[in-house]
Amino acid sequence: EKINSRPRSTMGPRVLLVACCFALLSKAVAQNVLGIDFGSEYIKLAVVQRSAGVQIVLNEATKRKSPNALSFGETQREFGDTAMVKPHLAITHTRELLGKSARAELVKIYGPHYFPFEIIPDEERGAVKIKESDRFLSPEVLVAMVLTYAKSLAQAQTKEKVADCVITVPTFFRQFERQAMLDAAAIAGLNVLSLMNDHTAVALKYGTDNNVAELKEPQNVLFYDMGSTATRVSLVQFSSIPDKESFDKNKTLGQLKVLAVAWDETLGGNAFTEVVQEMLKAKSKKDPTNNFRALAKLGVAADKAKVILSANKEAHPSIESFIDDYDFRASITRAEFEENSRTLLKRVVRPVDEVLLAANMSVESLSKVEMIGAGWRVPKVQEILLAHTKRPILDKTMNGDEAFCFGAALYAASLSTAFRLRKFGVHDITQFPVSIDFETGVADSPVEEDEAKDDAKSDEPAPAATDKKNIKLFKIGHKIPAKRLLSFKRDEDLTFTMKYDGELPAGTPNIIAQYNITGVPAAIARYPNASKPKISVSFRLTRSGLVDVDRAEAALEEMVEVEVCRYVKANASNATLNATNSSNTTESSSAETDKDSANATEKDAVKGEDAADKKVEEVKVCSMKQEKRVHRVSLRIVAEAPVIKPFNASQIRAAKTVLEGYDERENKIRERASAFNALESYIYVTKEKLESNEDLIAVTTKEFRETFTEQLTKMNGWLEEDGWNADTATLKEKLSELTSVGDSAFWRSKEMIERPDIVKKAKEMTLQTDAALVNISKERSWLNKSHIEVVSNKTQALREWLENMTAAQEAHPAHEAPLFTKDDIVRRVMSVDEAMKALLRIRRPAPPPPPPYKKSDSKSKSKDKKNATTTPSEDSGSAGSEKPNSPADGEQSPAPPSEDGEAGNSSTPKEELR
């Protein structure tokens, strides 16, 4: 697939552009976008490139997914598979700590299992932090480290900078978790175009793969996603809609509409792994409860045993040196596993029932039940779902591991200005109702106004009485993105609290933020004669699922006296003025009236009928009038998170400094390790070649080899004793000492090996040049001998030089610098080549132009011809001495000259007479 990269046209808020058909355009912006599936256990990446389409990003081990893990070693951090080499030191499931307080239920669940460091409350922000060595790190910083690692993988594969991205988040992520993910991305230097609900990413990938634009009837698909930590079930309707922007009336587009979503935050693959882990723990002769390293080993063994039980009826896990010298071995059966998982299995279908109830549908209305994730591979889970959905099979047409990052990458491409993609409608919804509470002092009820035709409407009625202090902003199922505008008649500043309605998990705060809208008294003072101001507050539900206040302003109405002017006809103006100033007017005398009448009659007599066509003179008439003026004043918005505070700008800069410190330290460590390895490798390789490499022995003396070998041995002794503590500069200096001695010998060896082949090719080139010159002299006759001799002489000189230098080099000692090098040969060959190119650039000379056409001569001959025809008696005269006459009327001009310079008719006047 190729991507069409041109700035996309502006579409409606309901339309999303997705990649199905890609074509490169020349005026595109050179930019790649990244889709990140930031899972709890694994991280998957897909990058969109203009030249390569959508591709999965591979890690250093060429794997298509990497563990979402990092560890802090003695000298540097490790990520992904490398971090999991020592699972007891690896920090995993960092996503579960984002936006959480220390009292959150998930922190209590995951803390003891997945975090080898102490989790303590962050009193300043209301969140948590982890103590690493002598510093405290927030979950945002830990996630930023993993995102930086992900970005480096993408840039290593594309060989280009990657900054714009879309990150998937669980549907149940609320304001705090989503904001924390955005903060982490900002620390990592990523530009998040949007966060994307994971169920929407999967549905988008399904829609683009199945060509839903050709559907005749809507299709209801239930996506069952059991991941490592949670289970999410979404019901999505796919359908086709007419393309209103196409000239083809029959053209349709695909669209998806999320109908309902339900989830279980603690029912996932890890929950079943913990069941196996507890079973193995009970079979162990030694208790690993207080041994984090042993617990980590037991967790790895339990996960492998769970996978084995998915395909077999029993498993035999074993752990060498489980605790001290104790080797653990056990045997468990699938029946035992299912019996111990009874409580979990009862929860498998609960989200399915919730989704169908919310969408007012039955299982018979489902077109497909798509299984994604990895937890559903437990046989009993599939058996329960088959029975509950009354289906013969469960659909498994999607790659459950990669569908999320592919959908995120397509969404990122649609939001980027670097790509123009096929249109696909996407309708996502929010899962948490949001409202605002007003503190005491609100005098008037707010009035809801439409801010956007498609966005602002809400089914929640505005309060009708002054005692209602709660307003519903966005209910469950409200489309994303959206806006809502509320207005208040109020003469003082406004304060309200934004919160989530309904039940939330234990330890999760329901207050999102407290807002203070200030500047109302100042606006009133600025316009003291205005009426009571109307405060308009715009609320926004972003595509990332965040709710905030977009803007606030005060509108003050004031009646002002303004001058209104208009133009009227002169007589109408006089009538108006007479009516206005009737007390000051007097009647004109009859004499004056008669005089004016006579003058008018005389003027009309002079002008006649033209006077009727003249426009009547108009005059400007002004008067004072009361007019309403509306003054709009922007108000200041101050938001404060009273429970879990997001990162501010200074904290993000400080966190970036922390990451830069880690990067700088690790870069220095990698640079020193590279210098150490280079020195060590040079010593071993060179000593071996001095002893056994025949080419190197041939260009060196025995004395040189013995001396250099001794120097290498001494350097190796220094490296083993003092080299471990040497810095990078010292290691590079030691390597330079050795290369200054050995490089010349290696160079002579390389010259001796490669020079004969270059000499052979140069001689072949001289023969080819001689043959080419023979052909050129035959085919290009316009070339003179001197042109060809320039190339021929250079070729002969090169041939003689090669013969002489080769003979001299054979007699020259091999351990000394060669008399000529392969570079010398290349330079002389290039000289001959340039001479040949100059010869071939000489073009055939252009043919001589024909004699110019002389018009005067032609006219003279034509005149002579005419005179000879009409006056035969003058045939013996010298007509050529007379001035030529122009052709008479009706006569043709002389014919153009022929190739010999004469006129078209070659006969002379005398011949015509005869």
TrEMBL record:
Region (Disordered): 445-464, 578-610, 840-914
GO molecular function, one term: ATP-dependent protein folding chaperone
GO cellular component, one term: endoplasmic reticulum chaperone complex
GO BP annotation list: endoplasmic reticulum unfolded protein response
Bias type Low complexity, positions: 578-591
Record's compositionally biased regions (Polar residues): 868-879
Residue spans of biased composition, Basic and acidic residues class: 454-464, 592-610, 854-867
Coiled coil residues, start to end: none
Pfam families (alphabetical): HSP70
Signal peptide: 1-30
Keywords assigned: ATP-binding, Chaperone, Endoplasmic reticulum, Nucleotide-binding, Signal
Keyword Signal recorded: yes
Protein name: Uncharacterized protein
Species, as recorded: Cryptomonas curvata
